[in-house]
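BACKBONE STRUCTURE TOKENS:
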Amino acid sequence: QVQLVESGGGLVQPGGSLRLSCAASGSIFSIYTMGWYRQAPGKQRELVARISNGITNYTDSVKGRFTISGDNAKNTVYLQMDSLKPEDTAVYLCYAIIGSAERKYRYWGQGTQVTVSS
């Protein structure tokens, strides 16, 4: 069993910053990818950023503002969010693809609320 525990969400003013963390624990053989989705009310779930073997990808709306990074020793991924905008308001969900070369599974965190408002 694998658990993903997120932290770091909250309320911030426009232009402010937040740092999200997601730590994986449990029966981890190998982590292939970790990343963040977000879901705002009435909108589809959106992939925000992911990191895999050191390669990062971002959705266009956050490029230049968000930075994803990982600490392999801690099985943890971070999302540094700068220059936050009201449209970044959403529940941010961490995910990880973990397993072996033969079989991989996707795991989800519980989600953390990010609210950008003055």
Q: What stands out?
A: The chain has a mean pLDDT of 95. The longest strand covers residues 90-99. The CA atoms of residues 62 and 77 lie 17 Å apart. The radius of gyration is 14 Å.
